[in-house]
């Protein structure tokens, strides 16, 4: 006997997915009209030795891994991996598509797609993780991040050209 869910998604799976999407929209603090155009996707890295593997995004976008607390961003031919939190007081940052920038959800610090701080209470750029390319993946050392004010050269090098 076959289960009705074997070939098609069950009603339960559909409802769970719909609820997850709704929660994600609420978590990001967006209206439904803004969410429709939002270039934000949710991803989950895969442990690969001491690093975590993420697919290189195929288009300019912000890809959030809530478990690892990182953003894998692709912008203007480069991939970056940022901490999900603002360097000011560790509050979550979100992507604002109409303004083409990241913004802190608490004190409104603003950042360009490459993580450069443009305004607000933060005193430095978004923290970047040490990354390297492996085929169509980016490998991230989640134990090594770079602060732009302490290591400007390392921060500038924490990118992959695509």
Estimate nothing, just give the exact number of structural domains. 2
- What's the Cα radius of gyration? 17 Å
What is the number of E strands?
13
CATH evolutionary superfamily of the largest domain: Rieske [2Fe-2S] iron-sulphur domain
- Biggest β-sheet, characterized? 5 strands, mixed
What portion of the residues fall into strands of 2 or more residues? 35-45%
CATH architecture of the largest domain: 3-layer Sandwich
Q: What is the CATH topology of the largest domain?
A: Rieske Iron-sulfur Protein
For this entry, what is the oligomeric state of its chains?
Answer: single chain
Portion of residues within helices:
10-25%
Shape: globular
Question: Quick check: average pLDDT?
Answer: 81
Count of helix runs: 3
Strand order of the largest sheet: 1-4-5-6-13
Question: Secondary structure elements and their pairing?
Answer:
Elements: H1 11-27, H2 32-36, E1 40-42, E2 46-48, E3 51-55, E4 61-65, E5 70-75, E6 78-83, E7 93-96, E8 101-104, E9 110-111, E10 117-119, E11 128-134, E12 137-146, H3 152-157, E13 160-161
Parallel strand pairs: 1-4
Antiparallel strand pairs: 2-3, 3-12, 4-5, 5-6, 6-13, 7-8, 8-9, 9-10, 11-12
Summarize the structure.
With 162 residues, the protein is α+β, with helices and mostly antiparallel strands. It is 17% helix and 37% strand.
């Amino acid at each position: 006997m076959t289960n009705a869910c074997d070939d098609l998604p069950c009603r339960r799976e559909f409802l769970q997915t719909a609820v997850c999407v709704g929660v994600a929209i609420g978590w990001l603090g967006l209206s439904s009209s803004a969410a429709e155009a939002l270039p934000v996707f949710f991803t989950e890295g895969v442990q690969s030795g001491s690093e975590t593997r993420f697919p290189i995004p195929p288009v300019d976008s912000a890809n959030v891994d809530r478990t690892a607390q990182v953003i894998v961003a692709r912008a203007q031919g480069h991939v970056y991996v940022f901490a999900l939190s603002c360097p000011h007081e560790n509050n979550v940052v979100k992507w604002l598509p109409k303004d083409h920038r990241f913004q802190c959800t608490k004190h409104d610090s603003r950042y360009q797609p490459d993580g450069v701080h443009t305004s607000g209470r933060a005193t430095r750029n978004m923290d970047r993780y040490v990354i390297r390319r492996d085929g169509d993946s980016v490998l991230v050392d989640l134990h090594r991040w770079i602060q732009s004010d302490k290591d400007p050269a390392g921060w500038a090098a924490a990118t992959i050209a695509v």
